[in-house]
Design brief:
single chain, 190 residues, alpha/beta, Ubiquitin-like (UB roll), three-stranded mixed β-sheet, 8 strands, rod-shaped, cytoskeleton, golgi apparatus, UBX_dom, SEP_domain, nucleus
């Protein structure tokens, strides 16, 4: 471990740390250890038995000036959490919005089977959130959109997953087979 001890007129600093007064007994003990050629106890605890290289700079003709903080970029490595495809479970912006999406087009849910919530972001900027069983098909999502927003009944649109973007072309697949449980689906006009 490389440590730089800077001696100033009014105290000393380690690396670019705070000024430590010469008159403080702990600091005086630290400097005595250095004068005897020993590693101060404080540094021994800091480096946990590693080798210490203590360099010294003499600035005793100058008053201590707090150094400007230098930007140090993150040099570690990142770790991804979770799966590669995000499972986005979003709450509606208001209770009325959720009620509106459920009241507009009721979807028959079998409570004895597993269910999921799917958020649908429509081409007009609005969104629908609806519960479906895992066995519902992509066609059921399309039908739900048309029933909830009749303006889209005559529109030619596709359903697309979010990252990675994948067009859901086979509308006979179940939500589980299409791997779109607890996710966001985008409606795109052709």
């Amino acid at each position: 471990v490389q440590i730089l001890l800077k001696l100033w007129r009014n105290g000393f600093s380690l690396d670019d740390g705070e000024l430590r007064s010469y008159s403080d007994p702990t600091n005086a003990q630290f400097l005595e250890s250095v004068k005897r050629g020993e590693i101060p106890v404080e540094l021994q605890r800091l480096v946990h038995g590693a080798q210490v290289n203590l360099d010294m700079e003499d600035h005793q003709e100058q008053e201590y000036v707090k150094p400007r903080l230098r930007f140090k970029a993150f040099s570690g490595e990142g770790q991804k959490l979770g799966s590669l495809t995000p499972e986005i479970v979003s709450t509606p912006s208001s209770p009325e919005e959720e009620e509106k999406s459920i009241l507009n087009a009721p979807v028959l849910i079998d409570d004895s089977k597993p269910a999921t919530k799917v958020q649908i972001r429509l081409a007009d900027g609005s969104r629908l959130i609806q519960r479906f069983n895992h066995t519902h098909r992509i066609k059921d999502i399309r039908d739900f959109i048309i029933q909830s927003r009749p303006a889209f009944a005559t529109a030619d649109f596709v359903l697309v997953t979010t990252f990675p973007n994948k067009e859901l072309t086979d509308e006979t697949l179940t939500l589980q087979e299409a791997d779109i449980l607890n996710t966001v689906i985008l409606q795109q006009l052709k």
